[in-house]
Amino acid sequence: MKSYCLFILFGIICLALYSCHKKTDQNRAIALVEVRYENSSQKLNFDGSKLDSLYNIAPQAYADSVKKGNELDDALAALESQIEHLSQAESDSVGLISAKLTKERYRLLDIAKTKPAFVGWKLSGVVVEGEKADTLSFNFDKGITKIVP
Questions:
Q1: Crossing angle, helix 59-82 and helix 88-113, to 10 degrees?
Q2: What backbone torsions phi and psi does residue 111 show, to the nearest 5 degrees?
Q3: Can you tell me whether residue 136 is helix, strand or coil?
Q4: Structure confidence by residue, pLDDT tens digits, 131-144
């Protein structure tokens, strides 16, 4: 029984040490960039760098397009209900406006079909030290295993 308790205690200590040593996503991204630049004369400063997720379409842009599409639907419905009470010339003008709004609505519907999907990571704010302080950004795959274009 005593050896069983010691074995469990040893396992807990190993797990604690492993979890403390485990690298964060940003540390793994920085390590990949350091490997790429290890033979370079450029010195990189990662102090202000930031790791962000990349999406095929920004979730906020997706939400905005859905909201704007709903607003366009309301505007189109209002226009169509008023068009029959107008003269021919006014009706034609409103019809042109309605056609443009409908075209924009179809464009927004295409955007809404593209759901936001996670495509990788971006490390930004990496500063190249020297006379010409340049800021670099790097894109990574989903698992942060390699730098991608």
A1: 160
A2: -65, -40
A3: strand
A4: 677 888 999 999 99
